[in-house]
Amino acid sequence: MAFDRDKFKSLVHYVCWKAGDPAKLGAIKLNKICWLADFLAFYETDRAITDARYVRRQFGPVPSAIQPVLRELQNEGILRITEAPFHDYIKREFAPLVEPDPDVFSEKELELIDWTTQYVCNEHTAASISKASHDHIWQAAADGEEIPYFTIFALPGTLTDSEREWAALQIEEMRSN
Question: How would you label 111-128 residue by residue, b for 16+ Cβ within 10 Å and e otherwise?
Fold first, then answer.
């Protein structure tokens, strides 16, 4: 599946609307909701919602298209983006000005988006969801590198020497064929 920019734009709009209070949703949480919804959809259905490209950044996975899409939504009068002081930082807040069209998403996609939005907005702070996203999936990429969707199937842990030896033998066997 190729990246569906319009659907990603709809995802961002819908998440901002579903979060309710703009104070509950800053940039870090928005990034994590998009990532989590796409990766959980891939895990559960073998298809991401938007097939967006997510890259490893300091505070966790970030959709590479997020900044241009936010600018478009703001320029089109769909979303108001403001900055508010938050502890020692400036937090971006997102207030939808127009109700989104949920028909863009399947029932399963809406279920996943609604759950991830509630989970991130109500069960986490920006710091805690950022820390939680620094998992084995995030660690599979170097800073600035794309995080492949298939990493959602990886199990955390350490490889043993025997597993490394087995893998080396498999690679050698494939090269000789």
Answer: ebbbebbeebbeebebee
Does pTM top 0.85 for this prediction? yes
pLDDT tens digits for 107-157? 999 999 999 999 999 999 888 898 888 888 888 888 999 999 998 988 777
Going by pLDDT thresholds of 50, 70 and 90, the confidence category of residue 162 is confident
Q: Which residues make beta-bridge pairs with 91? A: 84
Q: Could you give the C-alpha distances from 76 to 29, 38, 97, 117, in angstroms and in order?
A: 23, 25, 10, 23
Q: Provide the β-strand partners of residue 84.
A: 91
Long-range contacts of 78-81 (CB under 8 A, 24+ apart): 78/13, 79/12, 79/13, 79/16
In angstroms, rounded to a whole number, what is the distance separating the alpha carbons of residues 5 and 68?
Answer: 10
14 class by beta-carbon count within 10 Å (0-12 exposed, 13-18 middle, 19+ buried): buried
pLDDT at 69: 98
Judge whether 78 and 15 are in contact, CB under 8 Å: no
Among residues 136, 137, 128, which one has the least CA distance to residue 157?
A: 136
Q: Is the pLDDT of residue 12 over 80?
A: yes
